[in-house]
Amino acid sequence: MPVFAIPIAGTLVGLIIGSFLATIVIRWPQGQSVIAGRSRCDQCEQTISAIDLIPVFSYVVRRGKCASCGAPIKSDHLVIELCAGLIGGLALYVDPGLGGLFGAIFGWLLLTLAALDAQHHWLPDRLTILLALSGLTASFLGNESDFLNRLIGGIIGFGTLLLVRLIYRKLRNKEGLGGGDPKLLGAIGCWLGWSALPFVLLGAGLVGLLAAMTMHMRGQEVTPNTALPLGSFMAVSAFPLWIVQTMVDTNLF
């Protein structure tokens, strides 16, 4: 395959992966199987035909409505598909090899976790552990010291936010961080290494500030007690950092 076609293939595969990820985000919190069973309309419960499951295309053609009853389809599905396509294309653009494929997996897992945390304030351990293990596995594609760097990143990432969580609970007698947030930062550390963790938290803070400002502009109340999805913010900031790291490593900068 020509090198220029690899990012295009990554985008197309990402769109297909995104459709599956959107199904996970919709079904898993409801206790439904993400593999078994045909997709159905939430309103009329009519089984969705194969042609209406084509990523992005079917949504655009049907104008975001069910083909059977005309009920609006949530745009979340489309957004996740587009984001997954973008992740696949970018990852294989900056590294059109096995490293780029692993990077796409990193991005797709982050996307799923970000969506689950944003919608349900839930960071499933199974996905977080998979994220950490895939990061440590991908380290063997680099130099010999990369594994140790990532392992330390995982330990420091988890330990830092766990300590913050414990101190906050001790001082305020209530939870300030979810139990999944330290695990997610640890998993991100297993991908980016310990030195990138301050930038992940800085990026998460900026994304969180932007989210709070957007909520305020929409008329939503934002107070110190407003629950914001820190996991989503960390996930959004982590993948661009992987892109930058990879561009530096491959001399694209």
Explain this structure to me?
- With 253 residues, the chain is mainly α.
- It is 65% helix and 0% strand.
- Helix 1 packs antiparallel against helix 3 and helix 6 packs antiparallel against helix 7.
- The model has no long low-confidence stretch (mean pLDDT 88).
Give me the strand/helix succession. HHHHHHHHH
Mean pLDDT rating: 88
Number of helices: 9
- What proportion of the residues form beta strands (DSSP E)? under 5%
Poorly predicted ranges:
none
How far apart are the first and last residues' alpha carbons, in Å? 24 Å
Number of strands: 0
- Cα gyration radius (Å): 19 Å
- Give helix % range: 55-70%
Main pleated-sheet profile: none
C-alpha geometry: globular
Q: Which structural class do the helices and strands define?
A: mainly alpha
Question: How would you summarize what this structure contains?
Answer:
This protein is mostly helical.
Sum up the structure in keywords:
253 residues, mainly alpha
Secondary structure elements and their pairing?
Layout: H1 5-27, H2 57-61, H3 76-94, H4 98-120, H5 125-138, H6 146-172, H7 180-192, H8 197-217, H9 230-249
Helix pairs in contact: 1-3, 1-4, 3-4, 4-5, 4-9, 5-6, 5-7, 6-7, 7-9, 8-9
